[in-house]
Amino acid sequence: MKEGNKKRKEQIIKNTLKASYRAPQFVANLSEYLGFSEEKIEHLFEKKYLAPNWGKHEALLRFDKEISGIERGTVVYEKDGGFEKILGFPKIRRAMVLEPTLKKQFRKIRSLAVEEKMNGYNVRVAKIKGEVIALTRSGYICPYTSERAKVKLNLEFFDKHPNLVLYGEMVGPDNPYVPKTSYEIESIKFFIFDVREKNTGKPLPIALRRKLLKSYGFFQVKLFGEFPLEKAPAEIKKIIQQLGKIEHEGVVIKDPEMLLPPIKYTSSQSNCSDLQHAFLFYNETGRDYMLSRIVREGFQTVEWNESEKDFEKRCMQLGKSILSPLRKSIQDVKEKRRLFEEGRIRVRELETARCFEEYLKRLGVEASFEEPKPVGEEFLIEIKKINKSTHDKTAAIWEGQLW
Amino acid sequence: MKEGNKKRKEQIIKNTLKASYRAPQFVANLSEYLGFSEEKIEHLFEKKYLAPNWGKHEALLRFDKEISGIERGTVVYEKDGGFEKILGFPKIRRAMVLEPTLKKQFRKIRSLAVEEKMNGYNVRVAKIKGEVIALTRSGYICPYTSERAKVKLNLEFFDKHPNLVLYGEMVGPDNPYVPKTSYEIESIKFFIFDVREKNTGKPLPIALRRKLLKSYGFFQVKLFGEFPLEKAPAEIKKIIQQLGKIEHEGVVIKDPEMLLPPIKYTSSQSNCSDLQHAFLFYNETGRDYMLSRIVREGFQTVEWNESEKDFEKRCMQLGKSILSPLRKSIQDVKEKRRLFEEGRIRVRELETARCFEEYLKRLGVEASFEEPKPVGEEFLIEIKKINKSTHDKTAAIWEGQLW
C-alpha cells in the first residue's frame, strides 16, 4: 500500500471513530429512545445542539440547547444496550416581589420550604458507566470537579442508589469558576440542594432528600424552615435581610413535595456583588445580566417600602458596585496591567490540573496556571483567566479610539 | 360595468398611484442618480430601506438605513426633471477620554473649535419643491416642526440660499419628543449647528457658517472658542464641568474648516439625566443605551483622576439616577397609575396639531392629546405618550408573574 493511501485510510478510520455517534444504527436507536425523528436527531448533531463530550467521555452526548422540553445540559449515553439520561438543572425562575408572586405561584399548597441559595457553581454528580462523574450546568464533564467529587463524597451512595443524581453547588475558594465568596469554607465543599432520578429527573421530596443525604454525611444547603403561605413573604424578607448582612446570596422557595417548580429570591448584596463582578469586565458581561440585577433593586425598595435613609444607602451601594469595578479595570489598563479573573484549584493528582487546563482551552477560555504549591497531600494552583475583550476595548480607548 | 369590477379597477389605480415611485422609469432614473443598480433600488424599496413619506409628501423618499455611505435619514426626491437629496445627520462619534482621543483624531490640525451640544431633537430645515420643510433625524417630515420652522425662521434665507440646509436642534419645553430640559427657553427655539449643501452634504466652515447665520438673526449653538490642540483637553474639561453645573449636555469638538469629522463629549450630569429618563421606562430603553452611559462615568472619573470624595459623589449621583426613576415607575404601577411620557406642543393652526397626532399614530406612538389652551395667537397642547411595555411588565410582576 502506498504511503498516501495508508494515511488516507487511517484518516477515514479516525473520522469514523470520531463520528461513531452519528452512525445510522445509533441514530435510529437514539431516535427511538428520545422519541424524536431520525431527521431531528441528525439536525441536532448538525447544529451541535446535541454534541459529544471530549476525550474518553466522547460517548456522553450533551444537549447544548433546550430541545422539546429537555433541559439544556442534559446528558444522554448508551447503557446496557439501551440509553440513559441525566437531566439538566431545571431553570429556577425568580420572584421580583415576594408577596404577590408566592401567593400566585404557590396558591395550590399550604406551606413553603425555604432553603439557602448559595453562590458557587452548579454541579451534578452521578455514577455513569461505572465511574463517578461531575457534570457542569452545560453538561460538560469537568475533570477538576470530578476529582473533587471522588475525593469529597462518600461514594457508597452511588452503589446503593445507582439511579440517583446529586444536584448541588460547589462552594469555596478552591474554585476555578466563581469569584471569591463569603462563606467560611477553607477549600471547597459540595452543597446538595436536589436529588433526582436518572431518566425522569423526578426529584425527591425535601424531607426524604434531607434525611437520605444526612445518612451519608453529605453537606446540604441550609433549610430555614417550612412556613405557612401567608407568613412566608414576611419570614423570607427577614431571612433575606439577615443573609444580606453576611453577604450571602438568597433563598430558593420550594414546594415540600417538589411537585411545583421552586422560585428564587436574592438579597440586595447579592445583586450588587454580581454587578461588581460584571462591571470589572464590562465588555464581556451580557447587558441583560447587568440590567436585570439593577431592576431587582428597584422592585425590592418599593416592595419593602423603604425609608429615604435606607433608599439613599441602597443608591450609594448600587453606584459603588457599578463604578468601583469600572474604575479599577479602566485604571489597570491605563497603567498597562492586564485584566484577568482569578481562580484557584486544589488537586490530589497533578494530572487532574493538566486535564483541567486542556479542558478550559477546549472551552475557549484563555487561562494561565501558576506553579503548583504542595499543601499536605494535595497541590494548590492559582489560575488567571484573561479577559481579552474588555482589556482590548479599554486599551483602544486609552489610545484615542472613538466609542 | 359591474360594481365589483369598478371597485377592483379603482383599487388598481389607487395602488398604482401609491406605488408610482416604483414605476420602471422612475427606478431607472433614480438608479442613475444614486449610482446604484436598478436591482439594488428595487431591493431597497422591497426592504423599505428606501421608503416614501406620507400623505402630500409621498414624493420625498427617505433612507431608513445607511446604504453605501448614504446616511440614514437622507431624503431624495425628483427636481426639475432630475433628482435632489438632503443628506442625513452624520453620526458624531464620542470621545470616552479627552486627551488621547483629541490627540489621535485631530493630529493633522492645530486648533479645535468647541461648540455646545444641546439637548433637544435634531432637525434639518430646507426649502424643498418651493416649501420650507423640517425633516427629523430619520427623514420624516414632522408637521409640528415644519410649522414651527416657518413661524420662527427668517424664510428669506431659503430664497437667497436655495442650495443650503440648516442642521440644528429644537430645544425648549414646547417639545413633543424630548423630556424637560434645563435651558431658559420659554417655548421652543431652533439652534443651528451646521449648514450643509444639498446633494453633497458639504458643510460650511465654522466662521463662515456663524457669520451667515448671524446675518439672518438665527439662533446658533454657543461657540466656546478655538483652542490649540495641546490645550484643548484641559480647556474642554473646564467647560464640561461648568456645563454640568447648569445641567447642560456637553460639547462638540470640531475642525474649524469642517474637513475632519467632529467628536462629542458630554458631562456626567448629562449621562445621569439620560439614565433618569431611561430607567423610568426600563423595559423600553435599549440595554446598550443604558450601559454606555454608565461606562462613560467610569472613564471620566479615571481620566480626571478624581478624589475619593468626588468619586463617592459620582457613585451617589449614578445610583440615584438609576434607582429614583425605577422606584417611581414601579410605585406608580403598584398604585395603578399609568406610565407615560409628557410632551407639549404650541401651534398656530389647530390643523397642525391634528396632522401631528396623525403623524405620531403612523409612527406607532400611542399618545393622547389634551384640550388645546389658547395662549396669545397660539394654542398649547399637552401630550401624554403611553409606555405600554414597561407598564405591562411592571403590572404583571405586581400580579405575581415570575421574571
Q: What are the SSEs and their pairings?
A:
Two copies of one chain form a homodimer.
Chain A: H1 3-18, H2 24-34, H3 38-47, E1 50-52, E2 61-63, E3 75-79, E4 82-86, E5 93-94, H4 98-105, E6 111-117, E7 121-128, E8 131-136, H5 143-152, H6 156-160, E9 164-171, E10 189-197, H7 206-215, E11 219-220, E12 223-228, H8 232-245, E13 250-254, E14 263-266, H9 268-280, H10 287-303, H11 308-334, E15 340-347, H12 350-362, E16 367-369, E17 373-375, E18 378-386, H13 388-398
Parallel strand pairs in A: 5-14, 10-11
Antiparallel strand pairs in A: 1-2, 2-3, 3-4, 6-12, 6-13, 7-8, 7-9, 9-10, 13-14, 15-18, 16-18, 17-18
Helix pairs in contact in A: 2-3, 9-10, 9-11, 11-13
Characterise the protein shown here:
The structure is a homodimer of 403-residue chains. With 403 residues, chain A is of the alpha+beta class. In chain A, 41% of the residues lie in helices and 24% in strands. Chain A is built from 13 helices and 18 strands. In chain A, strands 5-14-13-6-12 form a five-stranded mixed beta sheet. In chain A, strand 7 and strand 8 (131-136) form a beta hairpin. The mean pLDDT of chain A is 93. Chains A and B meet through strand 5, helix 4, helix 10 and helix 11 of A and strand 5, helix 4, helix 10 and helix 11 of B.
